[in-house]
């Protein structure tokens, strides 16, 4: 606190012993200890009062919002979890109503803009194209006898699991 080393504390103790005397020195240290304890108690009480006032003013909620903005991935997963699991007021465990793609996840948040909707449409088209390509490959494989290269034999699956089970 005062950045005193052992030598400085020893010097203060020796000066106190000379000035106050050996009979009154324990009483002096006791009184100083009690005063420091009271000061710490008042500081702790003041800190709690300031935290309570900040809670009433909504500072913690603002702090959570700022922290969520600095971690967008965590904020997104938390929002998704809330929307799937429902609100804590009795709907926990039940899925929430399905979301409209045009509505924001958080109340008061702006709705997705045209760029987001365009990106979602592009992703949906790409997904449809990939499904169609996979279907055409499966049809070609079935027409060729099930084995790539046209040889006869059992049909090969599109995906072989990593554990080796068919």
Automatic annotation (TrEMBL):
Signal peptide: none annotated. It is a single-pass membrane protein. It is found in: Membrane. Residues 93-106 have a biased composition (Low complexity). Residues 73-166 are annotated as: Disordered. It comes from the Bacteria. Residues 123-140 have a biased composition (Basic and acidic residues). InterPro entries: TatA/B/E (IPR003369), TatB (IPR018448). Its main location: membrane. Pfam families: TatA_B_E. Keywords: Cell membrane, Membrane, Protein transport, Translocation, Transmembrane, Transmembrane helix, Transport. This is Sec-independent protein translocase protein TatB.
């Amino acid at each position: 606190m005062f950045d005193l080393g052992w030598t400085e504390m020893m010097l203060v103790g020796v000066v106190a012993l000379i000035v106050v005397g050996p009979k009154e020195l324990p009483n002096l240290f006791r009184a100083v200890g009690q005063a420091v304890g009271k000061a710490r108690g008042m500081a702790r009480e003041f800190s709690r009062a300031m935290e309570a006032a900040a809670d009433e003013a909504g500072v913690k909620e603002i702090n959570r919002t700022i922290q969520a903005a600095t971690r967008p991935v965590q904020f997104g997963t938390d929002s998704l979890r809330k929307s799937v699991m429902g609100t804590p007021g009795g709907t926990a465990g039940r899925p929430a109503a399905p979301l409209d793609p045009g509505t924001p996840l958080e109340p008061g948040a702006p709705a997705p803009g045209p760029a987001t909707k365009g990106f979602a449409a592009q992703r949906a088209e790409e997904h449809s194209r990939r499904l169609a390509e996979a279907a055409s490959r499966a049809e070609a494989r079935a027409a060729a006898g099930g084995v790539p290269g046209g040889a006869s034999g059992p049909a090969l699956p599109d995906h072989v699991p990593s554990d080796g089970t068919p």
